[in-house]
Write a structure and sequence with these properties.
Blueprint (H helix, E strand, L loop, with lengths): L2 E5 L3 H12 L3 E5 L3 H7 L4 E3 L10 E4 L5 H14 L5 E4 L6 H5 L8 E6 L8 E5 L6 H13 L3 E4 L8 H18 L5 H12 L5 H8 L1 H14 L4 H15 L16
Parallel strand pairs: 1-2, 1-4, 2-3, 4-5, 5-6, 7-8
Antiparallel strand pairs: 6-7
Helix pairs in contact: 6-8, 8-9, 9-10
The structure holds nicotinamide-adenine-dinucleotide.
Length: 259
């Protein structure tokens, strides 16, 4: 039985934990916040110390998206784990090589990136950095299949992964079309769903992702490219919506209203 140690008992960590439990893995969840652990203690085995990672075959990290925090965690965690453990991060925007600088055995470290809702979205990104061993990549791809999901193995690092890079391009184009008043939000979505046969258009998708998450990602991208005028325009359009609490489906209003 594969023993999986999950760090971060938030939105993603708990969804990944549920998927792994369903597939018959032995799962232990750790979080630095006791309240986060208490919230999931009725559903999962939880621990309050990193030392419990000693038994793990695989570590899956889903803490906040902050490079310094991830480096601090991995510096401590990678000293505790077994030499043959597979070490993975669910990072959305950081490169594995950036985090790997803090990892004791960087050849065991890679990004293992899930897409919510994790139980239904079967795509899982598997992305190493230059030093990741092919064996580690293969083992995580194999484990992904055992979970009933589909590994998307990346040939090299990319900050947005394959799927997100394509999605971001579509979402950006949709927002710019609305800002330029080429068409309304609803009719842009309608054009997309009619042409592709997909159930949701770009604005409905953004309401699911959360406009706060969209804004956070745009802010992080702007920090990397401070002269990007397109990004500044998108941030200026998202910011007042987020300030009004229009975060999307989770608050009942975003680009659309939900009952
Ligand atoms: N939310 C998404 O749609 C999504 C999708 C794919 C990947 N991700 C990535 O998954 C990771 C987690 O995102 P989330 O949405 O689950 O966040 P979240 O805020 O819901 O959960 C993060 C958890 O990490 C804990 N934490 C913070 N610092 C910690 C530390 N040093 N040690 C242990 N625990 C710590 C927090 O207490 C919290 O419970 C991020 O890297 C994010 O980019 C998120």
């Amino acid at each position: 039985m594969t023993r999986i140690f999950i760090v971060g008992a938030g939105t993603m960590g708990t969804q990944i934990a549920a998927l792994c439990v369903k597939a018959g893995c032995a799962v232990v969840l750790y979080d630095s916040d006791a309240r986060a652990l208490a919230r999931v203690a009725d559903r999962f085995l939880t621990v309050a110390s990193l030392e419990a990672a000693l038994d793990a075959d695989v570590v899956s990290e889903s803490i906040i998206e902050d490079l310094a925090a991830k480096r601090r965690l991995w510096s401590a965690l990678s000293r505790v784990v077994r030499a043959d453990a597979l070490l993975t991060s669910n990072t959305s925007t950081l490169l594995p090589s950036e985090i790997a600088e803090a990892v004791e055995r960087p050849e065991r470290f890679l990004a293992w990136h899930f897409h919510p809702p994790v139980d239904r979205n079967r795509l899982v990104d598997v992305m190493g950095h230059a030093e990741t061993s092919p064996g580690a990549i293969d083992a995580i791809a194999e484990l992904t299949r055992k979970l009933g999901h589909e590994p998307m193995v990346h040939a090299r690092e990319h900050r947005e992964y394959v799927f997100n890079a394509m999605l971001i391009a579509v979402l950006t184009a949709a927002q710019e079309l609305a800002l330029d008043e080429v068409a309304s939000v609803a009719s842009i979505d309608h054009a997309w769903t009619t042409a592709t046969g997909m159930e949701q258009g770009p604005f409905a998708i953004m309401d699911l992702i959360g406009l706060d998450t969209m804004l956070r990602n745009a802010d992080a991208a702007l920090q990397r490219s401070p002269n990007d005028k397109r990004l500044r325009r998108l941030i200026a359009w998202l910011k007042p919506k987020v300030a009004r609490g229009e975060l999307g489906k989770k608050t009942g209003v975003g680009f659309y209203r939900y009952d």
